[in-house]
Records
---
Amino acid sequence: MKKFIWAIALVFVILATGIFIGWMMNKTGKPATSISSESILTALHERGFLVTQTSVMNESVKISTESSSIWQKILWGQSIQASGVVEVNMGVDLAKTVAGDVVVYGNKVTVTIPPAQIFNSRLVGDINVENTQGILKRLFESDDGYNQAMAELIKTAENVSTSTDMMDTANAKAKEEIQRLVGYIAKDKTVEVDISK
């Protein structure tokens, strides 16, 4: 009977020792993940194109292919007036960042991103087109002017979006967004974001 009690006590001591060792190992915590420029660069590449600014503009354009000759104007002339709402999305293509763009030094992370650019542009809703054509143009070329008007509206909206003020705003928002994104990865480090020239 004494042997049985000793056996139970030995099993209990072994189990208690195993539980204590396991608790001590778990108490020390998991090893801290190392933050490197490669891990930050990978996270940026996974993000792809980061849209930081969306502009919705009501644009109107006038396209005229009329010449100074009155007969040319009457026969082949064309004048298109169009208006519509265009959405332009701008942001930063993070896939363009390279290894030298992310530097981790001590408690500081410096990220250099490309300048903001147009991601896409599209018409929102219908486009209003008034197309005045010469007699022969109407007979031989049935062009309603829609495609030409749409291209011109988008081009005009993109020109407005790439003005200095709009680009500065898009770049500032991109810097804030990247700073926040990298801050999630490198929580204990100071993040500085620059725009490449």
Note: Strands lie at 49-64, 78-93, 102-105, 108-113, 117-133, 190-195.
---
Amino acid sequence: MRFMESIILILALVFLIGCVQPGIDLEGNQPEVTKFGAWAFKKENKDIVVIVDTELALRRKTEKYFPLSIKVANKNLESLVLDRESFFLIDENGKRYGLAAVDEIEQNYDKLTPDHKFKSQTGLMADQLQTGFELYQKADSNFFPQTQGAARVIDVVYIRWKGFMEDLIYFPMPDGGIEGKTLRIELDAVELKDPIDIPFLVK
């Protein structure tokens, strides 16, 4: 009888360990990045969650510019304000790249329409229910409108408490390309104590 009880206890412990999501920092500091689906990478602390999806980036690996699908959820901050200066790409050599200018993309990149079509068909980082923020309020965000004059650019995104934003953001292609590279997004805002660094692999 005791043998069976021991087996049941061991199985229960194995089950509980398996249910713990790796990379989550219970102290609310800077956790490791966790894989989120086939293409996305997630980093979370007590205040915000950031998800970076690379599926579309890999389809644009030969272009001068490439998109990343980004999602930011505000869990505990009174508010979070993000603008074009909030996002930086850092390559394997430590070189930093700011967001491309809107007119650069409109003049030198001919994939905006298919990119937005892809986004509308697949959504960003799959269904919202899978992110756990289906009850959060979505903030208006449009850093790079689909076509020139089709919609206004929204350069400053206000994310309320229990709100989120999702958008496509574009960077210049780094030296050496992106395929097989470990890159990083640095997200910063006045409301954050420290910038959040999100490593991801384009593969």
Note: Residues 3-30 have pLDDT under 50 and may be disordered.
---
Amino acid sequence: MEPAARLLVHLEGTSKSYILWNGTASYYTKLRAAYKDISEDKQGDYLHFAFFTLCASTLEYSLNFILTNYCVDKYGPDKYKSFAEGYIAISFAKKLLMTPSIVSEGQLTFNEDHKSYKNLLGLISLRNKILHNKDFLKEFDFPKLKGEETNVEFQIKVDSNPIDTLKKDNCLTFGNSLGDFKKYLMTPALNHELTENEMILKIK
């Protein structure tokens, strides 16, 4: 279990003290509740979308918190924020990729063959497609009418909507992969115990 908050206390009271709340527990609590409902088929399709967006939000907030916590360690409470904001601004997929290396000072990286790492990249990709979805005009061939012809057959190819790919199975897969992320990266990183494991490898 990772710490609920980070306290930087100036015992003599002549300087400011600081607290960094770890709000990730609220995300994971809601994630576990929704995971349970999906696994028990208690709700309809809307829950799949709600769970999926909660997965994406949980992952990004967790990464942001890990990086902010690291910056407080490395740069102190007076200088950490500019560095943390720089890391947080990195694109979602790159931030996931880079976090183990950043917090381990270049010693560790993701095992890119680990199924949960691949699933989290898939989560990010699908999140971008769903949350930034857009449609533009698409061309299709309409047959030339002959005389007073009134019945015309033609085909229009319709691309599938990314949101319709959200089903029970892939939602549970994303949830399990977030569990691995928490177990193998987040909790040990916040406890200053991050070492090589099945999801995290030493950089050779």
Note: The first strand starts at residue 5 and ends at 8.
---
Amino acid sequence: MNKYIAWLPAFIILATAIYKPVKEATETKLVSKDISFSVYKSSSYTSVAYNNTSAEVTIIIEKVDTKGQHTIVWDKKLDSKYLSKYPSVENALTQKITINNLDSKKECLVVNYILRYNSKGSELQMHSSTILADNNAGKVDIGI
């Protein structure tokens, strides 16, 4: 019995040394993520065929957790306008937003954007997504 009691202080010191790193590894760390958007026309659209064609942009940001649950944290709809009225890449429409309270170990951000083109009543809808992980810069370019 005395033999086991002699090991007790060593066990307590070892447990104390291990406790802090294990606690930090399992602790939830909430962070903020900055995201910037650039919306621009990717072509000149000077042809007569584009004169009556407009585009509308919808941007949706979702948090996705490790269980696959999606939660919308931000969304915005840009008004429809003619393709020729969108700025070029040099003068792109830009916006920067910050998403707070993101658990960097259990959640990631997914940026979805939907482009809706309308040409004399004919509509085309295109969807694209970008996953923003920790190593990703948080910049999303949307070419119309």
Note: The chain has a mean pLDDT of 87.
